[in-house]
């Protein structure tokens, strides 16, 4: 195994731990909607939500890094350039994340000073990490880009997937620099903040997961490189329209020109189509050639990723991207419903698929097909679908009664907190959140139990051989 692949496994392990932290703080955040006085003066809702959302970003980012460090040496048949520096930065990254989480938990209030921005919280949603930590993330991403591009140049070789990945790394690093400027005009600040948040997620991350899923399909079902690269090129072409122009659906209410209503609503609905096409085409192609996917957990999570991306990101997103609907749905639990579904479908399922694939390849062992992964798959997906449905019901209630009828007043907001559909939606979200947490626990159990199954199979075989 290459050193880069061992580093990839470390990133995937750290990603799984952050996944657990995100689940814990997500459950905690959901309790405040049921008992508003929960942990009063001990731990506030905003801090729980920050750790939940930032934990989401970090577990996915670590998963992406782990996947690429795993696939890259196989693609180029050589060790990754600058791997020693990447190994050091992995531990720096983990330590920084741990320190930031501790600071968020124990420093919940403070003054809006330059020192707070550097050492406590930058105060911008999704990028609350203090500047010292944000600089660390930039350093990790720059070294990661050097690892990928430097290795390709050293090998004097590239492939279609790798070329797309290298071009994607440039905006992936550059866009994050938008987390640093201190813009005092709120409209201007929101405009560029959406570039940072959504061009990372709806453009660079979409291409990144497209590259990862292309490699996954090649190694999982022996998919044709020609097929997956063709869909990847379609995705890159559409990202230029859907990622950048689709971003316009966030401009509706921040003072930008009216033409963004049509542009943003239309293009944002097209984003998930290429990835769905890639997976469906590759699986159909594999079936027609009687190719076998021995790693069933990875195969099912790959399918979940493709359809979850299309339905959660595309269909759920399209429901609220039209400005006539977005006027009432923006910022309600309807948005949270779309966010949960889209992140899970587009990225979360893909990271878990790579996790199972790397587990199989790293141990040379195909016995992953036990019962635990099926329970985990069912509980995680049913839990997520339940949360998505509960949040949708609560959000639609908010859109109708708080926004459309109540006129978005403070009185309507307070009245909304007691409406039966909203309250029941919050209870249902908490219940399905518990189910989702059980699915996570089963996932961890299955990953740990794989080693015991491996020993149980290998020992009798060794005894028979002797």
Structure description:
It contains 16 helices and no strands. It starts with a helix and ends with a helix. The chain is an all-alpha fold. The longest helix has 46 residues. The mean pLDDT is 85. Helix 2 runs parallel beside helix 13 and helix 7 packs antiparallel against helix 8. 79% of the residues lie in helices and 0% in strands. It is globular and about 65 Å long.
At a glance:
With 466 residues, this protein is mainly alpha-helical.
List the main descriptive attributes of the protein structure presented here:
single chain; 466 residues; mainly alpha
Blueprint (SSEs and pairs):
Layout lengths: L2 H32 L10 H32 L6 H24 L7 H6 L11 H25 L4 H17 L9 H36 L3 H21 L14 H8 L5 H16 L7 H26 L1 H7 L3 H31 L8 H34 L4 H7 L3 H46 L1
Helix pairs in contact: 1-2, 1-3, 1-16, 2-3, 2-7, 2-13, 3-5, 5-6, 6-7, 7-8, 7-10, 7-13, 8-9, 8-10, 10-11, 11-13, 13-14, 14-15, 14-16
């Amino acid at each position: 195994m290459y050193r880069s692949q061992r580093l990839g496994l470390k990133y995937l392990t750290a990603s799984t731990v952050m996944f657990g932290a995100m689940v814990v703080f997500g459950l905690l955040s959901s309790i405040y909607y049921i008992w508003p006085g929960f942990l009063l003066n001990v731990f506030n809702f905003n801090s729980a939500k920050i750790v939940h959302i930032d934990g989401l970003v970090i577990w996915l980012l670590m998963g992406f890094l782990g996947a690429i460090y795993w696939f890259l040496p196989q693609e180029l048949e050589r060790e990754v350039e600058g791997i020693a520096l990447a190994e050091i930065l992995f531990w720096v990254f983990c330590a920084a994340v741990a320190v930031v989480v501790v600071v968020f938990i124990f420093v919940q209030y403070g003054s809006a000073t330059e020192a707070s921005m550097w050492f406590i919280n930058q105060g911008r949603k999704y990028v609350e990490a203090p500047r010292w930590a944000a600089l660390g993330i930039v350093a990790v991403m720059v070294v990661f880009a050097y690892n990928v591009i430097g290795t390709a140049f050293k090998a004097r070789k590239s492939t279609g997937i790798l070329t797309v990945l290298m071009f994607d790394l440039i905006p992936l690093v550059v866009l994050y620099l938008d987390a640093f400027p201190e813009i005092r005009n709120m409209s201007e600040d929101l405009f560029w903040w959406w570039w940072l948040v959504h061009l990372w997620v709806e453009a660079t991350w979409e291409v990144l997961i497209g590259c990862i899923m292309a490699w996954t399909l090649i190694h999982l079902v022996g998919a044709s490189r020609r097929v997956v690269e063709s869909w990847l090129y379609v995705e890159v072409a559409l990202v230029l329209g859907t990622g950048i122009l689709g971003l316009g659906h966030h401009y509706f209410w921040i003072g930008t020109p009216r033409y963004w209503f049509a542009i943003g609503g239309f293009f944002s609905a097209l984003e998930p189509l290429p990835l769905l096409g890639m997976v469906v085409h590759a699986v159909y192609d594999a079936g027609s050639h009687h190719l076998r996917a021995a790693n069933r957990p990875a195969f099912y999570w790959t399918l979940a990723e493709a359809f979850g991306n299309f339905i959660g990101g595309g269909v759920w997103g399209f429901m609220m991207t039209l400005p006539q609907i977005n006027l009432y749905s923006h910022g309600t639990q309807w948005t949270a419903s779309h966010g949960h579904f889209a992140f899970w479908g587009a990225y979360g399922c893909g990271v878990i698929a790579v996790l199972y694939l790397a587990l199989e390849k790293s141990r040379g062992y195909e016995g992953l097909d036990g019962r635990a992964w099926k329970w985990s798959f069912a509980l995680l997906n049913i839990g997520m679908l339940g949360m998505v449905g509960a949040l949708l019901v609560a959000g639609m209630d908010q859109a109708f009664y708080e926004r459309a009828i109540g006129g978005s007043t403070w009185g309507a907001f307070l009245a909304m907190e007691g409406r039966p559909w909203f309250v029941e939606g919050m209870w249902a979200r908490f219940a399905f959140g518990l189910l989702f947490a059980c699915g996570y626990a089963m996932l961890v159990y299955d990953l740990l139990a794989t080693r015991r199954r491996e020993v149980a199979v290998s020992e009798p075989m060794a005894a028979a051989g002797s």
